[in-house]
Amino acid sequence: MDDVISTDRLDLCPMTPEFLQDTIAGHRAAAEALMDLKIPEDWFDLADFAALRLEEYRTGATSQPWLPRAIRLRATGEMAGFIGCHTPPGPDYLQPLSPGGVEFGYTVFPEHRRQGIAFEASRGLIQWAQLHHGIRNFVLSVSPDNTASLGLIARLGFRRIGSHIDEIDGPEDIFEWTAAGAESAPASPG
Fold first, then answer.
1. What domains appear along the chain, each with residue ranges and CATH number?
2. How far from 156 is each of 113, 119, 136, 153, 166, CA to CA, in Å?
3. Model confidence pLDDT, tens digit, residues 37-56
4. Residue with the larger pLDDT of the pair 89 and 168
5. How many angstroms separate the CA atoms of 162 and 141, rounded?
6. Most buried residue, 36, 42, 54, 148, by most Cβ within 10 Å?
7. Phi-psi region of 157 (alpha: psi -120 to 50; beta: other; left: phi over 0)
8. What is the model's pLDDT at position 18?
């Protein structure tokens, strides 16, 4: 599969429009064959998310490299979650906070949490965006009650730059990691 981001244990596999269509339609076998993945029911419960991302792709609001990516455990072929950018780099809404930046988000399914997957996937995505697209600013928005993500953000070296009220998720703090002077993605802990 082209444009797969590989890390030590993971492959971050681009979700194609066809994969998103199969997700929306609930066609598990077709979706699994397209991505060479074992897909949990948790993913199909997110058909609304897949529909939103497919619509953004069809209307030109996003493009293929910035669509979500399945987090594939290389050892087992399981989909452990997903990660991806909210838009291509430099959207208008980020200009006042992080000019030229890109906002991304991630979800790790419950049975795969507390294994360092979100950390490893985030580092992989950041490094890919830096090396292949020259992105230097990265943004994450997190609920102030999400202690697991707040811990992850701290380990990655993000710093708080603001807050807002998300119309779906409610209050969120906004964090940024900037490559200013850095040569690679945030370092591994310890």
1. 5-178 (3.40.630.30)
2. 17, 7, 14, 5, 23
3. 999 999 999 999 999 999 98
4. 89
5. 9
6. 54
7. left
8. 95
- Coil vs helix vs strand at 51: helix
The length of the chain is 190
What is the widest separation between alpha-carbon atoms in the chain? 46
Q: 167-172 long-range contacts, Cβ below 8 Å, gap at least 24?
A: 169/141, 169/143, 170/143, 171/143, 171/144, 172/141, 172/142, 172/143, 172/144
SS percent in the chain: helix, strand, coil, step 5: 35, 25, 35
Amino acid, res. 68: P
- How sure is the predictor about 103, in pLDDT bands with cuts at 50, 70 and 90? very high
78: DSSP letter:
B
Question: Which two tokens mark 112?
Answer: 């795969």
Distance CA 81, CA 1 (A): 18
Strand pairing class (159-166; 137-142): unpaired
Query: Across the chain, what does the average pLDDT equal?
Result: 90
pLDDT in tens, 105-144: 999 999 999 999 999 999 999 999 999 999 999 999 999 9
Band the pLDDT of 179: cuts 50, 70, 90. confident
End-to-end CA distance of the chain: 33
- CA 110 – CA 46 distance, rounded (Å): 14
